[in-house]
Specification:
Blueprint (H helix, E strand, L loop, with lengths): L8 E6 L4 H13 L3 E4 L10 H14 L4 E6 L3 H7 L7 E3 L3 H9 L5 E5 L5 H13 L6 H16 L4
Parallel strand pairs: 1-2, 1-3, 3-5, 4-5
Helix pairs in contact: 1-5, 2-3, 4-5
């Protein structure tokens, strides 16, 4: 994961509830100089969030993107689905503190957000903190490795 040439690539996706914020995020990511893999959806027509969560999580897992961003109604469903993909550490971040500290302490590589929980201004602030924070390492590295050990224990395809 994290091929250097893909450090500036973000995989992004949403369901119908998150479509509007996904489009706002795409503008912000472009402004910040990121390239994007837009995994859909393409409208506010009802659709199934696990499809988009899987697509974004797989892009992060195989290294096509350094990070992922997913938006649905609460952020919870997207996180549940994305975290089934090996190597993904998706965190629901509906507040700025969580957005910053899930990167600093947990090395989260996928941000999930609830479009029905936060307004557009707060959503942009959350995205910025998630992108700008780096993993602190140190004592947190051993904890993140333990997450990986749990994943490997229960992953049948490896």
């Amino acid at each position: 994961m994290g091929d250097e040439k893909n450090e500036r690539v973000i995989a992004i996706g949403s369901d119908h509830a998150g479509f509007r914020i996904k489009e706002i995020y795409k503008e912000e990511l472009t402004r910040r100089g990121y390239d994007m893999l837009d995994m859909g959806t393409d409208s506010e027509e009802s659709c199934d969030y696990p499809d988009f969560a899987q697509a974004v999580a797989e892009a992060v897992s195989v290294g096509d993107a350094s990070k992922g961003v997913l938006v649905c109604g609460t952020g919870a469903g997207m996180a549940m689905a994305a975290n089934k993909v090996p190597g993904v550490r998706a965190a629901v971040c509906n507040d700025p503190y969580t957005a910053q500290y899930c990167r600093l302490h947990n090395d989260a590589n996928v941000l999930t957000l609830g479009a029905r929980v936060v307004d557009e201004d707060e959503a942009l602030r959350i995205l910025g903190l998630f992108l700008d924070a780096g993993f602190e390492g140190g004592r947190h590295s051993a904890r993140v490795e333990k997450i990986g050990e749990i994943e490997r224990k229960y992953t049948k395809e490896r």
